[in-house]
Amino acid sequence: MTESGVQAGGLSAVSPPVHYAPSWAADGGTRQRPPLVGDEREILTGYLEWHRATFGLKCSGLPADRLSERSVPPSGMSLHGLIRHLAGVERWWFHIQFAGEKVPMLHYSDEDPDQDFDDLSGDPAQALALWREQCEHSRAIVAAAPSLDATGMHAGTGDPVSLRRVLVHLIAEYAQHNGHADLLRERIDGATGS
User: What DSSP character marks residue 185?
Assistant: First the structure.
């Protein structure tokens, strides 16, 4: 081992990094780690739930006006905008495309496709409640599906889209935006965490 704590071959013998719960985890500790074993549905839904809960934690404990701060310029993103965006994503993928529900899109129009991030009028607490409602409805849709092979119709192509594909897409979507939320939150009040 060298003085820097690196062994031959480049592997460090120094203690691994410490993972800690964010100091702003004020939701009563409801976030559960994804399962280590389980069938495909349990693993996919477990990861999606973990990401949803992580996003909720990153938005918790802030005054409403701080949720709307665009704290990482020049980006126009804010936690409020991400809340609006993810509510729309839940509705678009699970409710409209997979379940075929005839409901309007949220925070989007062809004339104003970026209104989820650009238009921050309205109460962020109401936006958060709407996001939670969309998540709850998505959970019911997933629970009612007979298998991960069940399909809806992809609106862009008209091709079938499986529940498996929708779940994987939502996991990726939340993972990306949780990274954004982590940066936004750290800039707002210094809170960090996984």
Answer: H
Tokens linked to 59: 């938005």
Tokens describing residue 45? 């839904």
169's tokens: 């897409």
Q: Rounded distance, CA 178 to CA 16, Å?
A: 23
In the 8-state DSSP scheme, what is residue 4?
A: T
Give the DSSP H/E element, type plus range, for residue 133: helix 124-144
Cα distance between residue 93 and residue 110, in whole Å: 17
Neighbours of 74 (CB within 10 A): 5
- C-beta of residue 149 within 8 angstroms of C-beta of residue 81: no
- Span 114-151, pLDDT tens digits: 888 888 999 999 999 999 999 999 999 999 999 999 99
Q: End-to-end distance of the chain based on CA atoms, in angstroms? A: 30
pTM of the model: 0.83
List, in sequence order, every residue forming a beta bridge with 160; answer none if it has no partner: 153
Alpha-carbon span 50 to 45, nearest angstrom: 8
